[in-house]
Specification:
This is DUF5678 domain-containing protein. This protein is an alpha+beta fold. The protein contains 5 helices and 3 strands; from the N terminus they run ααααββαβ. It has a 3-stranded antiparallel β-sheet, sandwiched between helices.
Length: 119
Amino acid sequence: MSYNTPEDFINAADQELMRQDWKAAWKVATEGLQHFPDHTELQKYAYILAPPKVTSVPRDPNRDVQGDMDWLKQHRDEYRGRWVGIKNGELLAVGNSHDEIIAVVGPVKNTGILVTKVY
């Protein structure tokens, strides 16, 4: 099929979506972007319909998840209702909120620090 305008590509993508063929709709949208790279709506279609991107973070070989779980089991009663920061089975911080723990330990993304409320 021949498309002459961005709207033609969008309509064709919509038709594929009505048939529930997400992959075909994405292909139409990306083809439309090759012809009309600055068209905002086609950019949106291509982005939304694109296959998901999977990223992973390598597991820290020094991370001791079991140590954290053991610590929580052993100290559950003592810290019940409080927030804690734990790493490798070692208590780093205790507080009344998530924010209090972060204020002590800093950002925790990719650090191996577990921040949780004890129940």
